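Record format v2
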Amino acid sequence: MMTPEQQRITAFAAERFGPKAVTTDPHDIEPWLIDWRRRYQGAAPAILSPGSTEEVSALVALANDLGVALVPQGGNTGMVGGAIPPADGSALLVSTRRMHRIRRMDADANLAVAEAGVILGTFREAAEAAGRRFPLDLGARGSATIGGLVSTNAGGVQVLRFGTMRALVAGVEAVLPDGSVHDGLSALKKDNRGYDLNQLLVGAEGTLGIVTAATLRLVPAAAARAVAWVGLESPAKALSLLRRLQAATDMVESFEIMPDDTVALVLAHVPGTRLPLAGTHRWHVLIEAVTSDPAAEAPATVLERMLAEAFEAGLAEDAVIAASEAQAESFWRIRHAISEAERSAGPAVQHDISVPVEDMPRFMVEGGAEAEARFPGTHAIAYGHLGDGNVHFHVRAPKGVDRNRWYAEDAPHITRLVHDMVVAAGGSISAEHGIGQMKRDELARLSTPARMAALRAIKTALDPKLILNPGKLVALAPETLSK
Amino acid sequence: MMTPEQQRITAFAAERFGPKAVTTDPHDIEPWLIDWRRRYQGAAPAILSPGSTEEVSALVALANDLGVALVPQGGNTGMVGGAIPPADGSALLVSTRRMHRIRRMDADANLAVAEAGVILGTFREAAEAAGRRFPLDLGARGSATIGGLVSTNAGGVQVLRFGTMRALVAGVEAVLPDGSVHDGLSALKKDNRGYDLNQLLVGAEGTLGIVTAATLRLVPAAAARAVAWVGLESPAKALSLLRRLQAATDMVESFEIMPDDTVALVLAHVPGTRLPLAGTHRWHVLIEAVTSDPAAEAPATVLERMLAEAFEAGLAEDAVIAASEAQAESFWRIRHAISEAERSAGPAVQHDISVPVEDMPRFMVEGGAEAEARFPGTHAIAYGHLGDGNVHFHVRAPKGVDRNRWYAEDAPHITRLVHDMVVAAGGSISAEHGIGQMKRDELARLSTPARMAALRAIKTALDPKLILNPGKLVALAPETLSK
């Protein structure tokens, strides 16, 4: 059921932009109303798919006039329900799927301009075809879109060297809540004209504007890479190893840590996986080193030397460097299969958190012990991007619990404890997945009043009618929410 | 003459923070009421110098209650009048001079926390003493403060490799207009908790908050450097040379271009300067290459090889690599003495502009010709940071003009032309100096309505009483200005 205002917008889109721009068949809409982890179910009477920035602009201007909420959506690969519309059907979905042009690919300048609907995998391939590399990668590369990656400041497994999406965005084009277009695509290395609207839109989760295109930085193509698997005793030793590597070379692009029982879970549940090392180790680290310089010392040689020094220093227990691309991929497969393995191991509550890098080893050990002590029978594990101070901190349910009861009753308390520990450590309750609807109220609970007041002031100043992605990210004051 | 409200704040500061926190003697105040280039003269009945973040917070909260304007000031080295109070004496100056602690220097983490009043030169030395390097440098290093550098997103001669201040800021602590404290010092590599307030405060020129401290990134200490002087034919060839260098090595930290007549001006006016090359060249380039890796190929060897290739390719006409530190400094002295030489050469109107790097060679040549054609007798020169797309574009007055008349009548028209050309090229009318009061109205004239509306909305949302650095950066709508 559409409201008369929603009908007007839908009719406007159909008439002005053509039939491709409007989807109203419930069967076609349905897959876009639920997130891929099936945690958030929304409703929407239509998906609008404008084909250009001008069309997005016209659509948003009309929606603003009529006070109709819009929820922007890219590949629908989000982890926090940020692209799922409200359950009451009050919002229309705006898909960027028809805006999939790469407008510019400038290898000399190491820059490219991609529209919001360009798929990450497609973009990475285009950069490679141009002899360059786009150094951001994540599991959802086949579906995630540039617009979504910008709007969520996406991270992934290559952040260590090149940073998150924020560091890779040189410019943003977006339609603001009143329908006006912010054109920040011109990639200026120096530009001091006041508040940085491009950076404000990165990670704003579509609440301040609909990102329609972005200018993205490219890096030189990889000339050689090496992947190593290291067994070691503790996260503290892992961090010491990382610091040594980073002091000696800038080649390290990934440094992923996993506890032994998590690796064992993968080996038990995921066919075709095999432990790279023969012995037993409490912690495992996956390292990837890359160079773009064909004349540079080979990454494998660098890692070999550095790991030999790490044995001498008592930091590493054992290590192996992949002898082939296939072997390198098999190492990575273990890391990437953790989520899959975890699902088959029973209920778990997951947290995407960060703390200052130096504090992460302590947090992984003490935080895990604290969670297990406070919730007897649970099992805490932490794995992920040690060098970014970002681990995925999961707490598994005690064996034999009722799944639904545990998720409904215990999980929220566990999450509260983990978030409190993170805040006490000066960390973030959302390292890379964003806030969306999942963490909106936790953000409000755990932010300082100064911070929440600033977020609310910015949101309501730029989107006074609250039409863009309502209910996400910023918990508004009660009086504003009820508007 | 103080208003009763100003008196209350001054008395509060004296009583709560002690006599050091208040300066009311006009002789002591006077030097801080005019910028160092003596273009902007303000007035203020007192300078308040809080000694801690808590004191700044108490001060701002009271000023906000009473509706008294505050102008934050660091080293008073700004180029656009951004730290000079209004001429009507309606604002109090807030100096960060007593907040000069380096709170943390963590070489392992490559991070440091410095208070707003720490002098750049002092901070650079502290980083060096810790075996690291802070890769931002500019002429005013002996006076410019961390707070000012953050608030103006300072640039300088090392931006090419490590970026502007924005890229070097890992966290910001600031007092917001209502007196609340934004504590963003925790340096998280991944943090997706909504709008990035740290980045919003960088370059906000004190209009959204008073920066009290910052977490800054350090880089490895330099193991070796090389400085080269190259004579070449055109900016286009200079850019081709830069692209070659950048494709081959990441050592290039500075790439400064200067036209021949500007270099000649330095040689004529600045004692002790001497041209590094014997022949005549239309353009000169100063290159600095640095490595932190003692085992890497020496920067001088890399430059030597690359410059030899550049001769072969017809890009460079002649070049010399400094044989000693003293010689390297003498090359740099020519570049740094340009402002001084220009002042002795008569009136000139200066523009700190940027365009996309690829377009800069064309802009330097065609923009200069256009300005000279439209204003007969003038002489346009452009020099500076070619690799950042940022040149200082100066137009010298015709010989024999009346200085005051020319500045008052012709200069504004020239500036308007230059700014229009910059905007047409998708560039910025303020590359590194900021907006302040100098460019406030030009920013309003040349920004899209969407951009100005966003800047105004953010300013008025976060500082509804308009107490922080009024009249700077954002030209408010007439009805708000008259408040």
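The first strand of chain A starts at residue 22 and ends at 23.
Residues 79 and 433 of chain A are 6 Å apart (CA to CA).
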